[in-house]
Amino acid sequence: MAKQKIVFFVCLMAFVLLGYEQVESKNLQVARKMKGEWRELFQVKQEKRYGYIDRKGEYVINPQFKEAYSFYEGLARVEIDKRYGFINEKGEIAINPQFDEAYDFCDGLAVVKIGKLYGYIDKNGDYAISPQFDEAYIFFDGLARVQIEKRYGFIDRKGNYVINPQFKDAYDFPEGLAAVAVGKLYGYIDNTGKIVINPQFDEAFEFSEGLAVVKIGKRYAYINKQGQYAVKPQFKEAYSFRNGLARVLVEKRYGYIDQKGEYVINPQFDDAFDFSEDLAVVKVGKLYGYIDKNGKYVINPQFDEANDFYGGLAAVEIGKRECYINKKGEYIWTSEK
Q1: Residue 91 located in a structural domain
Q2: Residue 242 CB-half CA count within 13 A
Q3: Alpha carbon 257 to its chain's center
Q4: What CA–CA distance (Å, rounded) separates 72 from 287?
Q5: Contact assessment for residue 134 and residue 117, using Cβ atoms and an 8 Å cutoff
Q6: Kind of pairing, strands 178-182 and 185-189?
Q7: Segments forming the whole domain that contains residue 186
Q8: What pTM was computed for the model?
Q9: What is the pLDDT of residues 263-320, one digit of tens each?
Q10: 201-234: per-residue pLDDT in tens?
Q11: CA 202 – CA 336 distance, rounded (Å)
Q12: Same domain as 236, residue 139
């Protein structure tokens, strides 16, 4: 169900199984939106090196890094000599490159990997929780999902287990409940580990705006926090609500529904993505454009690749050029051929 775009500027690294960084990135996006955090600098690639521009398209940090990622909480992870560290918004090294993998800061902590194990560091680069986990994810409401010996549990910010590792699969606590697998079925637990929605679904995902996507048989639906259907199983694909709308797939076309399951934008697109800053990427034929919440084109399909708006800019690709555009569709920055 969890289909993700390939973001060409944010070259997301894999973690054990394809999807760790995809899930981590999506969760970070949700966390940033909840906190109202916006990007001030945007990574760009020029002659095989990454640097950063501002909203005007002017270089703030010249291209110099083999890999570079978005700034979160004032720091961005970069790769230098096959090790990951963090820079500040002046381009200065804030945490020396020393990690085999590193992920973005959220609420003052970042997941890092040394050897085969994951832990958490603070903004000084000191370990807040020593590497000890087979997988580790960001904190939501004071809890982080970790895996050890093929079982998921949840820890607090001191690294103490609040919910012991016991689940074959688990998701995060963005709204007080987490989906977990018990045997072959999914249900939901609260932040004490108590089951509040009995395992009964073939798949289950995180709550967003009060509803969660679940799968029964071959169809997806939405439930509320009491486990009742808000929208009955009917969709071939379904995604989380963002800004009051959710994208769904019906007969090979994507559209958007409201929380009653009524179509706000009829299925008509070959591909579609979540709304971000009131615009959503959609695909018609082979080209991508942007629509508003009424389904009206704000920027006509014309791009070979297109990504969500954050901080007023979106990364797009046309031909062999990588670019940033504003919400008027004007080019702010364009790479050299």
Answers
A1: yes
A2: 22
A3: 21
A4: 30
A5: yes
A6: antiparallel
A7: 134-241
A8: 0.86
A9: 999 999 999 999 999 999 999 999 999 999 999 999 999 999 999 999 999 999 999 8
A10: 999 999 999 999 999 999 999 999 999 999 999 9
A11: 48
A12: yes
